[in-house]
Amino acid sequence: MATHRLPVAIRAPFEARTWREFGHLLLGLPLSCLYFALSIAMVSAGAGLLITFLGIPVLAGGLAMCRGFGAVERARARGLGLDVSAPAPVRGRTGGAMSWMGAMLKSGASWRHLLYAVLHMPWAVFAFSVSVAFWVWGWALFTYPLWQWVFPMYAGQDGIQLYGDGTHDFYLDSPFEIAVTSGVGLLFVLAGPWIIRSLTAVDRLMVRGLLGPSRLATRVTELESDRGVVVDTAAADLRRIERDLHDGAQARLVALAMDLGLAKEKLTEDPEAAALMVEEAHGEVKTALRELRDLARGIHPAVLTDRGLDAALSAVASRCAVPVSVEVDLPGRPAPAIEGIAYFTVSELLQNVSKHAGARCARVEVWRTGDRLMLQVRDDGRGGADMAAGSGLAGLTERLDAVDGILAIDSPEGGPTTVTAELPWR
User: Fold this and answer.
1) Same domain, 27 and 167
2) Alpha-carbon distance 89 to 208, whole Å?
3) How far, CA to CA in Å, does 338 sit from each of 82, 332, 409?
4) How far apart are CA 152 and CA 150, in angstroms?
5) Tens digits of residue pLDDT in 120-163
6) Can you tell me whether residue 38 is helix, strand or coil?
7) Does residue 220 form part of some domain?
8) Is-above-0.85 flag for pTM?
9) Contact 13, 142 (CB under 8 A)
């Protein structure tokens, strides 16, 4: 802990991260030379043999080898804190060798791995040279007072020779010159970590850009995941509606039918008792209608369709257990699906405020920024909201992800809590 009290510029040369990144650059040179030589040899041989059948398997094998190099580089990148997913494996349509070779030659990821193997070699030479020059010379000059005695004892000269033309010689041997040399070395040592980090940042960019899945493949994976979330959410909503109908309105209507049947039987024998039973049944009808209205509001409220978010959110706020102010500043109405998600998002957040926040008041703000719809719900409660705490926030995040939305939570212990949601306008 004591070292962390030092400024970062002073402790950076001694941090494990700096030495780890320096080792990454050192190892990068021999590996990149190996990648370059093997990939160029295999691809050149394959391209030259394309006039014969042998060129296709050689070229496909060279691309497969480059994908293996990419796996090594992604593993090395994880040592730098960069986790890049591997591209999808190459599979032929029919499962045979020819099908696999055709798929390998058509794979954009394979050619990007080849491009990495070719481009990384000159960059690795540059990064190796610069990092070694700054790092080794920096430490050598900085520690010069400790090993300056080596020159007069074993080299037959007074110190590091700064200049010499056969007539005049200049050595760094006086106390002042030794101190200045050490000071220059200190500057190199302090600058070295930032140069090394800049060089490894380029390595990260190359790995992320060339050795990971393409943007299209990543987007397809995201859409497949979002589709699964949408299907699961829809199925959960249907189960909830079925449960509410079965346990609520349906049960009341069955009981109501039985009560009316009994009242019908007693109508001639005991009119007063029948009238009392009809009155009770009337109350049950009102309760069933209220439950059906609540259920319909949970599916899609009519006020949202007719009057938009402003009126719908005001209605939700009026039912909240704490006073809620609503401010909606929209130039128009977003897409109906987005409007519905925005409504249910605010409804869920206000339910959390009522049940968990212990707040005295809350505020809802809705506005448009560019092509995005922004929602923000704030409360002055106890804070500590967490997606893993079962407050429904994780489900909201998944629902927003399905339409490329974002949910951000700022809820320190002791409050206040601010939840911001961002949705596409269309």
Assistant:
1) yes
2) 17
3) 34, 13, 20
4) 6
5) 999 999 999 999 998 888 888 888 888 888 877 777 777 777 77
6) helix
7) no
8) no
9) no
